[in-house]
Structure formats: structure tokens, C-alpha cells
Design brief:
224 residues, mainly alpha, 64% helix
Length: 224
């Protein structure tokens, strides 16, 4: 019988192995004794939200009344399926959206989720160095996007966007877009090299953690 609970790091390790396996969801899921739908859901959440998307929700996430209403109306207008809109609006599961739709159809209203902490929703101007610090706070120190947003007083969307940009195109991608390509090219060769080395150190640390955990996970599976 498949396990019902996995830690975020366990899920990440399994996703890394799936990436290397070059096989179907069904075949890989069967080998690891997990549900194929669960595997696909983990991958979707990781691609959208990084490591935070793999964490089990320990408390209600805060969603504004405006976001809830926008998501509900988008579904009622036929702008996407429950799954598609869940990804688009950054929700933890499509069950949340389904519940909001039911409540809206019943009462024509949706309420704000209770939460002990509310993540900043307004964007603010940041320096290039601040963006790198925010990215490393998430990737190196293993904090969530929400924690980064609260710590640095930026929006969740900003934190997520900068991490994704850095992962795709390196730290130079975090430079102010107003400069476009010209501003990136103004970096000296030495400055670009320092940025690459700085990011590589973070990536190597993350890779080392994943490899160590993968080894332990395999040992436990062999013992079982």
C-alpha cells in the first residue's frame, strides 16, 4: 500500500530520480509504490512553486477575497479547468477552488481565509544584490517563497519570479529589466565570473543535500 505522507525533501528526491529514469509516470510510480497522480501533482507543484510546493500545508494559506473571486469567476467563465486555474492562481489544491465555487454558487460571496501571518502582496523596488539575497534565502537556506516575502518585505510573486529567473538564466537575469541586455553586458568578465561562482556554490550545496538524502532513502528501501 502506498505511503500517505512524504516530506518535501523525499518528494524532491523522488522527482530527481524520475527525471533521470526517462520512463512513464505509471511505470516509475509503480516501482516506488506511489500513485501516478501524486507523482504528477508533485511535479506540477514543484515546477510552479519550487520546494514550497512540495510541503504539506500546516495551516491555512491566506488568499484575499479578491483573488478568490477572480479565480471563481474565471472558472465560471470557462477560462480553464480546476487544475489549470489552480496552477494559474498559485493555489495549493483544486479542492480549494472547488469549495470556493460551491460557496459562491450558494451565497454569491467568498470570504478571506484565516491566517496567523499575511504575506505582503504589494511589490517594492529592490536592488540587484537584494534579489540575489532573496534567491539564496530560498535556494541555499531552504526557506519558502512566503517566508522570503515576509522576511524581505516583498511580494510572494516577486520572490517566486526571481528564483525562477535565476534557476533558468543565472544571477544576471535578476538585473533591472529597464536596462535589458545592454545592462547585463556592462558587467565585466570578472563580475560575471564571480556571479557564476556564487551561484554554482549554492547549486553544489543543494545537489550534495539531495544526493545524501537519496542514498539514505535507497538504504531504507532496501532494508524494507
Amino acid at each position: 500500500m502506498p505511503r500517505s505522507k512524504y516530506t518535501a525533501l523525499e518528494k524532491l528526491t523522488i522527482l530527481e530520480e524520475f527525471k533521470q529514469a526517462n520512463t512513464s509516470y505509471a511505470a516509475f510510480a509503480k516501482a516506488f509504490n506511489i500513485g501516478a497522480k501524486s507523482l504528477k501533482r508533485w511535479q506540477t507543484r514543484y515546477e510552479r512553486d519550487g520546494i514550497e510546493g512540495l510541503e504539506e500545508a500546516r495551516q491555512n494559506n491566506h488568499y484575499s477575497k479578491e483573488l478568490k473571486l477572480t479565480a471563481v469567476l474565471a472558472y465560471l467563465a470557462g477560462e480553464g479547468t480546476l487544475e489549470e486555474l489552480t496552477i494559474k492562481f498559485g493555489l495549493h489544491s483544486h479542492t480549494q477552488l472547488r469549495n470556493w465555487i460551491s460557496r459562491y454558487n450558494r451565497d454569491k460571496t467568498v470570504t478571506v481565509s484565516p491566517s496567523r501571518k499575511q504575506v505582503p502582496t504589494m511589490s517594492r523596488k529592490t536592488t540587484f544584490e537584494e534579489r540575489i539575497e532573496i534567491v539564496e534565502y530560498v535556494t541555499k537556506d531552504k526557506h519558502s517563497y512566503s517566508e522570503a516575502a515576509e522576511h524581505f518585505q516583498v511580494s510572494y510573486q516577486q520572490a517566486r519570479m526571481w528564483v525562477r529567473k535565476a534557476e533558468a538564466n543565472g544571477y544576471p537575469a535578476l538585473m533591472d529589466n529597464r536596462g535589458h541586455r545592454k545592462q547585463r553586458d556592462e558587467l565585466t568578465e570578472n563580475e560575471q565570473l564571480k556571479l557564476e561562482i556564487r551561484q554554482l556554490k549554492v547549486q553544489l550545496k543543494e545537489k550534495e543535500i539531495i544526493e545524501k538524502f537519496a542514498k539514505k532513502l535507497q538504504e531504507l528501501q532496501h532494508k524494507g
